Amino acid sequence: TYYTKAKFLTSAPDIKHLNDEGGLEVAFAGRSNAGKSSALNTLTRQRNLARTSKTPGRTQLINVFELDEQRRLVDLPGYGYAQVPIAMKKKWQASLGEYLQKRTCLKGLVVLMDIRHPFKDLDQDLIHWAVSANLPVLALLTKSDKLKSGKRKAQLLMAREAALAFCGDVTVNTFSALNKQGLPELEQILDKWLAL
Ligand code: GDP
């Protein structure tokens, strides 16, 4: 598959600075520490493609990775740090909303959330924008290895019900970067979104 071929293409300070490219892209978003970098590294079988975050609240860039000439993964900055000034948050939200609405090459959004704390306010906002822009959303419950199988299943069912109640048709799956639980399912969904 092309995920293992991922290589760094470009960084942008914000969405407005992304080139107007053709092809297809899928974006990854989540609260800081949700496990986004770990998931991207697991997906691409690369140790250091996406940096796992060590510096809370640091200004982050959008990183774009190329899979092949037609396909890209977009790593959006983590959100949810209390220290970030309100003005910056507002600006980020506005530009993110615009990206989800107007980026025609964008074929899907993966929203990563710690399985123990899914659907916080900002996650819900983001999912709402994506759904209202008719963008397919995969809510990925990360760090699934943190829960035993029974608890994990219960949490997944609860999250699916919650998603159905507040935003309709959103796919919810579990994932672990540690033991690769959910990796085939993740790839299957991305394959579908990235099909030419
Ligand atoms: P990001 O800020 O969303 O990019 O999150 P990171 O990928 O940097 O992960 C945040 C923290 O969660 C790090 O300490 C990771 O080692 C840990 N982590 C990420 N994914 C998993 C996972 O699947 N299982 C476990 N147990 N820990 C994880």
From TrEMBL:
Tell me the InterPro entries matching this sequence. Answer: G_ENGB_dom, GTP-bd, GTP-bd_ribosome_bio_YsxC, P-loop_NTPase
Note the Gene3D superfamilies from the entry. Answer: P-loop containing nucleotide triphosphate hydrolases
Q: Name one Pfam family in it.
A: MMR_HSR1
Highest taxon of source? Bacteria
> What cofactor does this protein call for?
Mg(2+)
Q: Where is the EngB-type G domain?
A: 22-196
Its keywords, alphabetically, are:
Cell cycle, Cell division, GTP-binding, Magnesium, Metal-binding, Nucleotide-binding, Septation
Say what the protein does: Necessary for normal cell division and for the maintenance of normal septation.
The record's section on HAMAP family has: GTPase_EngB
Q: Which family does it belong to?
A: Belongs to the TRAFAC class TrmE-Era-EngA-EngB-Septin-like GTPase superfamily. EngB GTPase family.
Please identify the protein, giving its name as recorded.
Answer: Probable GTP-binding protein EngB
Its source organism is Alteromonas ponticola
